[in-house]
């Protein structure tokens, strides 16, 4: 495994209490608001799938689908998904999924949010580089999105 191609790592310091960042992250409806997916009436439950229509412009025809893996209140939320699965005519269900983990750590100034998405080396070679590139840029945007969401809600 080459960690430079297998995983994306991001972190952001959010000037808010950990409990507030946790609500934005672990409440499915709030998550959907900043992430760009319609999750009204949905919940994240460990061991269960969660899905909703993507609301990000240009991707509204896609369904966001994850399998929630772990929930450790105010510390960790993780799920598995098929990265950059954007062709509605392709069945990605037989591909390995990447693992997305959000970890929260309380700091003197607020909360450190760490994001790791790993498992790209297992994605089929013909889509691996593009999935990594697109998700890498996507996580840059999503870290800004959650920071802005927490600041305004």
TrEMBL record:
Where the record annotates domain Activator of Hsp90 ATPase homologue 1/2-like C-terminal, the positions are 15-150
- Which Pfam families is this protein grouped with? AHSA1
Q: Which InterPro entries match?
A: ASHA1/2-like_C (IPR013538), START-like_dom_sf (IPR023393)
Spell out the family assignment given in the record's similarity comment. Answer: Belongs to the AHA1 family.
Please state what the protein is called.
SRPBCC family protein
Task: Give the species.
Answer: Dyella humi
């Amino acid at each position: 495994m080459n960690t430079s191609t297998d995983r994306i790592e991001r972190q952001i310091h959010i000037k808010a209490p950990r409990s507030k960042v946790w609500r934005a992250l672990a409440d499915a409806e709030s998550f959907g608001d900043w992430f760009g997916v319609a999750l009204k009436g949905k919940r994240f439950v460990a061991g269960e799938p969660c899905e909703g229509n993507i609301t990000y412009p240009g991707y509204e025809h896609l369904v966001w689908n994850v399998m929630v893996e772990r929930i450790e209140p105010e510390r960790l939320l993780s799920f598995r998904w098929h990265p950059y699965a954007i062709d509605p005519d392709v069945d990605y269900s037989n591909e390995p999924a990447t693992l997305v983990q959000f970890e929260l750590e309380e700091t003197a100034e607020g909360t450190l949010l760490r994001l790791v998405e790993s498992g790209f080396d297992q994605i089929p070679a013909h889509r691996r580089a593009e999935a990594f590139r697109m998700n890498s840029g996507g996580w840059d945007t999503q870290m800004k999105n959650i920071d802005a969401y927490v600041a305004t809600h």
